[in-house]
Amino acid sequence: MSDTSQTMSIDIGISDADRKELAAGLSKVLADSYTLYLKTHNYHWNVVGPMFNTLHLMFEEQYNELALAVDQIAERIRALGEPAPGTYREFAELSAIEEDTDRPDATEMIRRLVVGQETVARTARSMFDVVERADDQPTADLLTQRLQVHEKTAWMLRSMLA
Predict the structure, then answer these.
(1) Quick one: how far is CA 88 from the chain centroid?
(2) Overall domain count for the chain
(3) What span, in angstroms and rounded, lies between the C-alpha atoms of 90 and 152?
(4) Residue 2: predicted pLDDT
(5) For residues 34 and 82, what is the distance between their CA atoms, to the nearest angstrom?
(6) Is 85 within the bounds of a domain?
(7) What are phi and psi of 106, to 5 degrees?
(8) 51 assigned to some structural domain
(9) Which pLDDT does position 1 carry in this prediction?
C-alpha cells in the first residue's frame, strides 16, 4: 500500500523556480479576473437607466465568460504544482482592480469596466518574460486568449462611451 501523503515531483520541463514564478503571476491574473467578475456581476444586478436592457445583457455575457476563465486560470496554476488562491482576502491582496465603495451610474459602470478589462490585460501581458524564459506554451496560449478577450471587451465597452 502506498503512502498517499507523499506526492510525486513535477517534471514537465519547467524548473521549480519558474513554475513558482509562473503560478505567482497567474495568481495575480486570477485575482484580477475574479475581482472583475464580481464587479461585472454587481453591475449586472444594479444597472439602471435607458441602457438597462443592453447593459444588463452585456454584463451577463461578460461575467459568464469571466466565470469560465477563472477556472481555466486556477487549473493552470494547479497544473504547475502550486495552490490557487481562492478567498476574497487573497484576491483583494493580489488584485490590481479596485473594489467599488459607491453605487456608480451606468456610464460610470462602463468606464470602470473598461479600466478593469485593461488592468487584467496589463497583468496578463506582464507575465510574458517569464513565460518565454520558461518556454511555457500552455501558459502563453492561456494568456494570449485572455488578452484577446479583455482587449476586445475593453474596446466594445469604450465604444459605448463615445
Answers:
(1) 14
(2) 1
(3) 28
(4) 47
(5) 18
(6) yes
(7) -60, -45
(8) yes
(9) 46
